[in-house]
Write a structure and sequence with these properties.
Strand order of the largest sheet: 1-2-3-6
Distance between the termini: 36 Å
Oligomer: single chain
Number of domains: 2
Number of helices: 6
Helix content: 25-40%
Largest sheet: 4 strands, antiparallel
Order of helices and strands: EHEEEEEHEEEEEHHHHE
Shape: globular
Length: 228
């Protein structure tokens, strides 16, 4: 089973009419392609994928179940999406507390970026991006230009050449932790005291971070960093 996105041409006004605030958030028109032994079935409709309390809901509303009307299937999709969003915990944070399984840095939102090169005018290799540790987060912000809430991603980079490998890592952890606390304070919650870092395999191999939480509690960050 697969989904192919379709243009909302001629239908966008309906999304805005039914839902002036959220508009097309967690919602898009798709063609559902279901390959079976007796042939391929294709249906057009609306796909929703709201995320509530750390769980993603993935549901498809096919036009053929609503009188072959994109408007009726859209209305059903919007009503269901809004029902799901209404289940949100008011204190839900825009980040995951539990360590993501694929994470190798030991801290959600922190990653390592290798040195990257580009070819110059004379064929020479030029450093395009220096090796660094990155702190990344996404949050909803209002866009005056687009007239709606959009997802903005911020990435703060801490150069290994400038800070050293280990200090650059701690800079990134601190930056991510600091952002999470700002999100908590915006909801009237107490800031988290612990940095929540797990000692990763590479730390053990390099004999780093034996008392990582204590190191972070005593760490004083340097203000300067690059953001993108």
């Amino acid at each position: 089973m697969a989904y192919k996105s379709l243009p909302n041409t001629g239908l966008e006004f309906q999304v805005e009419t039914f839902d002036p605030e959220l508009k097309g958030k967690y919602l898009r028109r798709y063609r559902k392609i279901d390959k079976r032994k007796n042939g391929t079935a294709q249906k057009e409709g609306w796909l929703i994928w709201p995320v509530v309390n750390g769980k993603r809901y993935h549901e498809f509303f096919s036009d053929d179940k609503y009188n072959d009307s994109p408007a009726e299937s859209l209305l059903a999709a919007l009503q269901r999406r809004n029902e799901i969003l209404a289940m949100r915990n008011p204190n839900e944070m825009p980040y995951r507390k539990e360590l993501i399984q694929s994470n190798v840095s030991g801290r959600n939102g922190v990653s390592f970026a290798k040195e990257r090169h580009k070819t110059g005018a004379k064929g020479q290799q030029i450093v395009h991006q220096a090796a660094c540790w990155c702190a990344t987060w996404s949050e909803d912000v209002w866009s005056e230009k687009k007239g709606k809430t959009i997802k903005k991603t911020t990435c703060k980079k801490f150069s290994i050449k400038k800070y050293g490998f280990w200090n650059a890592y701690k800079q990134a952890v601190y930056a991510r932790w600091n952002w999470e606390n700002k999100m908590r304070q915006a909801k009237g919650l107490e800031p988290q005291k612990e940095f929540g870092v797990n000692r990763a395999d590479w730390m053990i191999e390099q004999k780093l971070g034996k008392n990582l939480e204590t190191e972070m509690q005593n760490f004083t960050p340097t203000k300067s960093s690059k953001s993108s």
